[in-house]
Amino acid sequence: MIDTTAPNVTSKLTEWADDFTQNFTQAQLTHARAEADQRGLRLLLQALFREKLLDSEQLIFDSATDTVWLPHWKSKTLFRFEGLKSGMAGSWQLNGPMHYLKNHQKPLKVTTSAAALKLLSSLFEVTISPPDIARFQAELDNSTENDTFCLAYRQAWARRLEQEIPAGDGMISWLQKKSLYTQQHARFNGCLLLEQWGTLGHPWHPNYKTKIGLSKQDVFAMSPEFEANIDIAIAAVRADAMHIESMPAMPGFSTYLAWFEHTFPQVFRHWKEALLMRNLTVSEWLPLPMHPWQAQRHLPSEFPFEIATEKLILLSEVTCSAAPTMSFRTLVPQRSSHLPLMKLPVSLRLTSVQRTLSPKSARMGPRVSALLEKILDREQHFGDTLAIVCEQIGLHYIDPQGNDDHARHLSILYRANPMQHAEDNMFPVPVGALFAPSPIQKNGTSRALITELVASAFQDNAQGAIDFYRRYTEIVVGATLGAYLLYGIGFEAHQQNSFLLIDAKGMPQKLLLRDFGDIRIHAEALRLAGLTLACHKAGHTVFEDRQPVRDKLLHAVFLCHLGELALLLTQIYELPETALWIVLRDATQAVFDQLKPRIPDTLWQQEYALVLEQPWPAKSFIRMRLADSADDEVRSMPNPLMQLDAARTNGN
């Protein structure tokens, strides 16, 4: 049997083991590589079927051997999958190997997503150029290598955590206690540890760990999944070269400079000393934190004129320690539980797009936060189910030619610390971390962290999982669908942007949302509510059409968040496939019924049909990458809430 594993994989694993001998062994890397390969294959196949690049109707199922065949008769080619199964909401599982057979030759075992992409591309409904296939293959290879690194590191990290967690505690309850019962300004940031532990990648994206432009040493030194700590550079920028946007409530401070001095006193003192050493007038400059990669490797080539004319001074001697969150470029200064987080531009392709910070985001973050605060006050936080992490201050470079594409590389957004919501025995749990396996092993296996909450809030069994999910969806659907129906707000509340606020018993209490860079708002709904929002540019953030707003809600909240959670709990607790989707449908129906008196009848009927009955949007990640585009490509998929009766009839 021929194996299509890249021939240099073994040598790479040996090289990495030699370079990182203190972190993992070659045996750990080999085991991790197999796991990363399988995950990459599954996500690739799932996306290809979801996006209809492959036709699932052509599959031939052999239930006796748990084998699935995908033929391409014209080329006399067969693909064989073992343990390939479809599920709700276009999900797919692959629990065995994949093989490629052609013209009665020996079968090839396909072990990598990059190899599978090249072989399967001949079956696509559209013709893709070889350079586009090769570019996407490189991204997939990069993702698999980084995931291998991550999974190998987690083996030793898990052992350290398991030894530290007291017997009888779970990881979440241990961090909750550790974070709550210490001094206010020195307390441990358990939420940050959960963010770093839970950085496993996007649930839909085939290149979920792609970091193009970083060496393996960079990945290890800068990424959250390796418990990274980095030194943020603090540059000096001419005050008249920067636009400053802030929420109305920046209490007690008339300027950004005064706020920065109060918030980061030691950093400000070093920054001020650096300016005085250069005989510069402090009041004419602004401190601007920068990601070290951006400061060292991108800004010198992106801003040579500004550096040469001393509009921008890179102060190598002034830094601030910080740790990355689940987002590579959003950092927690000093791992603090009270200091604001810093969202920084990093001109690298991470996952699928270059992660800069546009003037739109720098300006709209504080404006949207202020608007949302008004809505939350008016709606009493939607029955006390919703809170937000405010984006307090944004800065961006003012390009003399008005070139936002240039300005997006020199900017920052300050965001409130999620741990500020850790009060009254509440604790913020990053939703993405709920999918991560616990470091605590029982009988040689680790279960997802969400099982800790199911067990503590209800019971660690199938009924407990259903009860937990019901409570969870009532909170999340009530908050997000309510905001959409009443105010036209489409939150991008996927796993990475969401926290679950739990009480001391692990019971879900409230949804906490962050990151409003891609929020979408319906203009007419906002006007009817008597509210306004000044936009940076027309066509961004606020839309005259409801469809893009609804698409954001359904994709981020219903599919990537609640849908993935339903799939996870169904698998862990061996529930009937439709059980939790019925709970989700009931929660959605309940919100529509509750808000019907407040919504015009025609609009209510229209939205009811589009959310509960009509096909849902499905973001096409592979099509976007093959086109090398950062613009959303959205197609449709069957509405899983309408598939319930059919699935029940088929015995699922």
Automatic annotation (TrEMBL):
Pfam families: FhuF (PF06276), IucA_IucC (PF04183). Residues 468-632 form the Aerobactin siderophore biosynthesis IucA/IucC-like C-terminal domain. GO terms for biological process: siderophore biosynthetic process. InterPro entries: Aerobactin_biosyn_IucA/IucC_N (IPR007310), IucA/IucC-like_C (IPR022770), LucA/IucC-like (IPR037455). GO terms for molecular function: acid-amino acid ligase activity. Residues 193-436 form the Aerobactin siderophore biosynthesis IucA/IucC N-terminal domain. It comes from the Bacteria. PANTHER family: L-2,3-DIAMINOPROPANOATE--CITRATE LIGASE. Belongs to the IucA/IucC family. This is Siderophore synthetase component. It comes from Glaciimonas immobilis.
